[in-house]
Amino acid sequence: MGRRIALGLAATAVALLLLEGAASLAVFLWHARMNVWLPLPERAHTAYDPELGWIAEPNARVPDLYGPGLSLTTNARGFRNAEEFASAVPAGVTRAVAIGDSFTLGFGVGDADTWPARLERECLRVEAPNLGQAGYGVDQSVLHYVRATRDFAHQVAIAAFIADDFSRVRSSQMVLYGKPVFRLRDDQLHLENVPVPRAPYLAPWLTQNLRLLESLRSVELGRRLASAFGAERGAYVPTPEDETTRVIAQLLAEFARTAHERSATPVLVLLPSLAGVDPEEFAPLPDYARAALREATQPALVKFDLQLDFEAVPTSQRGALFLTGPRSRGAGAHYSTAGNTLVARAIARRLDDAQLLPPGACAQGSPGVP
Questions:
Q1: Is residue 344 part of a domain?
Q2: From the CB of residue 306, how many other CB atoms can be counted at a distance below 10 Å?
Q3: Which of 53, 96, 165, 236 minimizes the number of CB atoms within 10 Å of its CB?
Q4: Residues in a beta bridge with 94
């Protein structure tokens, strides 16, 4: 009798364990059905990089990446340009290289409609190599610029950043992909998390959906056991805001110094981005970024803030500057063709005013939605 009771209790316990496991799996699958992340579009044209985390592959051609006819092309240097560029600047040409994140890369639009490509059409005898890389922060963009222009002459270097690019400086991850991070030691920049961990790049679906797996009780149990035995790897602590201010200021100074060493004028462009989906509300710069911009004065750094250019567009037309809703195709609230054109015209006008381009090189576009 006692044995039967014991077996019955054991069978019940096993049944409950199976039920608990099935319920946990069912909840996971239900949650995953609504929240699973598909592979990022960038994975179609990027490769792992031990210093930068990831970088665009050279000679890539991804037809219809952002929709029918909206292809992405890179040249032999990995720039988003169909044409190749000589190391030396051709006679009579002004070369303005553009660095930044996906807003510079032109996420969501075709090759001909990124703002660097539009800048070339706005201004005669201007080359605008597009070094933009999706997901980059200020730190990665500056590292990329230093490396990519060692043998690449240019007269103007444009660093175009949205508000979020300054926040990315604080973290060693971007959508759970590893990236380098700068910290200060004796008030000097010190690069950490390099070589960047490669494992997250090898399993993109797992990397992008790792948070979903945390809803499984077995995963939770494993983490608790790892923590109990001291084997759990601690989460990276974001760089404190006061340190971030000094890191950003030194990164911008490094960008400016490198540009001057290469006989180029450094230009910092602040690109407006939306705080959400409302075209009336732009994302504010973090306080630590504002403080860094006040500090970043040496060497000379030309600064353009384009928010007033976007605010000058009537509210009823401002939504057309961004890819939102059904038009976004996963591009979030990046610039539409109209938004990229507005940026190109605003930069062209300011470059002209700053006498960084030959007189009369740029056409004067209308101030409204292009």
A1: yes
A2: 17
A3: 236
A4: 126
Q: Is the residue at 5 inside a domain? A: no
Q: Which residue range(s) make up the domain with 303?
A: 41-353
Q: Are 265 and 152 in contact (CB under 8 A)?
A: no
pTM: 0.84
Give 274-330 pLDDT, tens digit per residue.
Answer: 988 788 889 999 999 999 998 776 667 899 999 999 999 998 999 999 997 655 455
- Please check whether residue 195 lies inside any domain of the structure: yes
pLDDT at 30 over 80: no
Q: Give me the torsion for CA of 344, 46, 66, 126, rounded to 10°.
A: 20
Answer yes or no: are the C-beta atoms of 119 and 351 closer than 8 Å.
no
Instruction: Report d(CA 362, CA 123) in Å as an integer.
Output: 4
Lowest mean pLDDT among 97-106, 180-189, 215-224, 298-307: 215-224
Dump pLDDT digits (tens) for 61-71: 999 999 999 99
Please list the residues that pair with 119 across neighbouring strands: none
Residue 270, CA atoms < 13 Å, CB-side half-sphere:
22
CA-CA distances (angstroms) from residue 26 to 31, 202, 223, 317? 8, 27, 20, 45
Amino acid identity at 88: A
One-letter amino acid of 98? A
Q: At what angle do helices 241-261 and 287-295 cross, to 10 degrees?
A: 40
Q: How many helices (H) and strands (E) does the chain have?
A: 14, 13
Q: Is the CB of residue 126 less than 8 Å from the CB of residue 119?
A: yes
**Residue 143 maps to which CATH number?**
3.40.50.1110
Residue holding tokens 């039967």? Answer: 4
Per-position DSSP letters for 251-302, written without gaps between them: HHHHHHHHHHHTT-EEEEEE---BSSS-TT-BPPPPHHHHHHHHH--SS--E
